[in-house]
Amino acid sequence: MKKENIFAAIIGLAVGLAIGFFAANSINRNAISQTTATTSAPISPNAPPTSSSAAATAPNNGGMMPDVQEKLDRAQNEPQNFAAQMNAGDMYAQIGRYDKAFEFYQRGVALKPGDFQANVQLANAYFDNRQFENAEKYYAAALLINPNDVNARTDLGTTFVERQNPDYDRAVKEFQKVLEIDPKHEPTLYNLAVAYNRMNKGENAKETLDKLEQTNPNSQLLARLKQLIAEKN
User: Fold this and answer.
1) Domain tally for the chain?
2) For the segment 154-201, what is each residue's pLDDT rounded down to a tens digit?
3) What is the rounded (10 degree) CA torsion for 132, 120, 184, 35?
């Protein structure tokens, strides 16, 4: 992708999206992949859905171009500037240029390996690019810093469900750790039920579904989960 096209995509996304990349109230890291992959794809709460079409169709605000270019140039020219590296990683992640996002996030983590959010952002980028083993590494690093973060631990558990060679037992252990902290964490209940369903533990899956329904009868996850369990049976 040419440099000017990268700027245009970033600007279009900034104009076209009404929500921030790290909105705290999102519950679905895989919003895009769920529309193209199997309906059994687990979900993760750490980041909101993004829209590639929004980036492609939003108007190009030429007045913003110098600011975007300045931020990307600063990251290149100031390799010791932690914030600049992370900002550049955010920009590339938002337009799906994960190769560049990894590069800048890795620079940021190298500068501040003990920064919780930096490790999570790098893990999120790997997760979104379906590099689950790499995502595991950085979620685990983040959880050494803040072991009680339920979102990061749910995502860690989901990496074991979604990888090519799943480790469902490990996933269940991570989800259960989350539920010890927050028994009503909806994405964790959903993902735990998915894991049980894939393990052919139908009774456990149904019990977990019931807990989710008791937690929030209006949860947007319920219909999806009921369908998955019904299909398995």
Assistant:
1) 1
2) 999 999 999 999 999 999 999 999 999 999 999 999 999 999 999 999
3) -50
